[in-house]
Write a sequence for this structure.
């Protein structure tokens, strides 16, 4: 008996079915089995009573229809099976209501059906679920209207009316309770899943940061060894008359330098955000300091820096200085030939954040490259034309992200660039620093 | 020509680094012998082993900090506990450039560490150390 029940319950469940779907299919089967059992009792009862033949016929058909969902499951039509269950529920509720009238409370089963689609198909049904609820309400209102206008088809003189209506109420309420219980349980599973996922993500991020640090840190040692031995080889075996070997050494040196710079870049990148605490920084002073640091470069190309009055913001000073310094040096570096670079720094205050703009009249960036430029080691130009390692904007991106902000660029090739940066306002000033 | 340093001890797990240091010292011609060890344990054993009731007592130890197993710091902890008769002249901590700042501060906590230098050892660095700590040897 138990075995039979189990195999009936597992109709349509395959080994490859995932657990979530299997749970829903089993639920559908279980509810069908319950429906069939009740249907058989009703069938026996009605066949024994002296009702009209037509009523007996319809009831028999309704009972027979409850077999449809398990049969569909048997043929692996698991979605159709559950949809069929939902459809069959309507005649099974409407028909006894019309036949027996309002007093037996069959109409209240409609409310017991509200949560069924959620149990059958999961909680992300969206609009479909709203339509389902609306359909139930319409059917209920129709039945109420029907009860007022038409008499029941059968006038059952039964002393058990109250008992039956009470039982029906109880079953309807129980199924509502059951649905809530199910949904809460399901919700818990989802929430826990999300929590675990986000914890994992945070963990992965920390690991990744640490990885960049360790990798770059440990890569330096072997590189240094190679460097030392290249020195030794050059010292012991270099033949000044052999032009080839000189070229080889130059290439080796260049590659070593480049690798060393890249490793250092990675290392500094992994250290961004660890320079100190958040504090109030007057950006006007900060930019002035950057100007002083860069005055040689600025004078050399005769660049003009136009700075409108900037606010004081809460930030990591070292990082924000690096951010603006990178943007300004980029603006100077990627200038147009035969053109004085003009760099303008402006800002807008938004309710939650500051938005800064560093605009230049340089060579610009084609729109296809607007995302790419913020990635580590991305260069758009040959080293011979514009030297560098492609790390400046990657640094900027990380710095801005640490300040809960965004960085993006508006630019066309040959039309100058406008780099936008947002910095969130609600970064609390570190109390340790102030006391 | 002034007298040479009698004995310099190298402690580094990296054969390549020991080779480079050894080469630099030999090229500079400042030491009579260079003793190479590949770990803190081996170095401590060397310092404690007496021949004819005399301990090796090298004048300079070049100590690598970042070693697997027993690190340079572990070595220093054990070294402090040695007899005066077993201790060396000075200890120079060899720091890898990437972690120099943090390690420098820690090296300062050890009185026995008289000098630190970044890897790799070069002739200039070596001569600086000798000039500073053994002025009459050059």
């Amino acid at each position: 008996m138990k075995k039979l029940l189990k195999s009936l319950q597992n109709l349509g469940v395959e080994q490859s079915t995932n657990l979530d779907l299997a749970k829903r299919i089993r639920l559908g089967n279980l509810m069908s089995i319950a429906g069939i059992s009740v249907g058989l009792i009703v069938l026996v009862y009605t066949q024994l009573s002296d009702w009209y033949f037509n009523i007996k016929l319809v009831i028999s058909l309704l009972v027979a229809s409850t077999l449809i969902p398990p049969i569909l499951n048997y043929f692996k039509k698991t979605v159709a099976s559950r949809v069929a269950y939902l459809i069959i529920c309507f005649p099974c509720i409407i028909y006894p209501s019309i036949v027996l009238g309002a007093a037996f409370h069959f109409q209240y089963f409609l409310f017991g059906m509200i949560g069924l689609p959620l149990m059958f198909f999961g909680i992300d049904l969206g609009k479909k679920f709203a339509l389902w609820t609306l359909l139930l309400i319409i059917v209920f209102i129709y039945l109420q209207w029907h009860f007022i206008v038409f008499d029941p088809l059968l006038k059952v003189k039964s002393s058990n009316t109250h008992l039956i209506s009470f039982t029906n109420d109880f079953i309807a309420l129980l199924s509502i309770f059951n649905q809530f219980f199910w949904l809460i349980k399901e919700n818990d599973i989802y929430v826990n899943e999300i929590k675990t996922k986000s914890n994992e993500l945070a963990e992965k991020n920390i690991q990744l940061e640490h990885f960049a640090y360790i990798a770059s840190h440990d890569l330096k040692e072997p590189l240094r060894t190679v460097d030392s031995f290249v020195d030794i080889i050059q010292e012991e075996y270099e033949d000044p008359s052999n032009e080839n070997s000189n070229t080889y050494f130059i290439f080796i040196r260049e590659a070593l330098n480049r690798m060393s710079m890249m490793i250092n870049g990675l290392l500094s990148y992994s250290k961004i955000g660890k320079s100190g605490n958040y504090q109030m920084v007057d950006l006007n002073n900060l930019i002035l300091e950057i100007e002083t640091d860069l005055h040689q470069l600025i004078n050399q190309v005769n660049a003009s820096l136009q700075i409108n009055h900037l606010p004081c913001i809460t930030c990591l000073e070292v990082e924000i200085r690096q951010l603006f310094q990178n943007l300004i040096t980029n603006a100077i570096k990627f200038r147009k030939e035969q053109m004085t670079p003009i760099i303008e720094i402006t800002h807008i205050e938004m309710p939650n954040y500051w938005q800064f703009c560093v605009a230049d009249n340089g060579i610009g960036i084609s729109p296809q490259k607007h995302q790419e430029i913020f990635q580590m080691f991305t260069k758009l130009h040959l080293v011979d034309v514009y030297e560098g390692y492609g790390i400046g904007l990657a640094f900027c991106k990380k710095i801005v992200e640490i300040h809960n902000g965004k960085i993006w660029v508006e630019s066309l090739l040959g039309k100058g660039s406008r780099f936008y940066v947002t910095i969130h306002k609600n970064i609390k000033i570190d109390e340790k620093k102030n006391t | 020509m002034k007298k040479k340093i009698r004995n310099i001890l190298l402690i580094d797990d990296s054969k390549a680094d020991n080779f480079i240091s050894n080469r630099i010292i030999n090229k500079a011609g400042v030491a009579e012998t260079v003793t190479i060890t590949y770990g803190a344990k081996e170095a401590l054993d060397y310092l404690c082993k007496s021949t004819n009731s005399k301990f090796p007592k090298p004048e300079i130890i070049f100590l690598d900090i970042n070693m697997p197993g027993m690190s340079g710091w572990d070595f220093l902890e054990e070294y402090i506990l040695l007899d005066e008769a077993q201790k060396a002249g000075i200890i120079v901590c060899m720091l890898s450039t990437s972690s120099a700042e943090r390690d420098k501060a820690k090296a300062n906590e050890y009185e026995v560490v008289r000098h630190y230098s970044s890897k790799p050892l070069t002739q200039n660095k070596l001569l600086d150390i000798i000039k500073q700590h053994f002025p009459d040897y050059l």
User: Anything to note?
Assistant: Strands of chain A lie at 278-282, 304-307, 312-316, 342-349, 353-360, 407-411, 417-424. Residues 110 and 221 of chain A are 74 Å apart (CA to CA). DSSP finds 15 helices and seven strands in chain A.
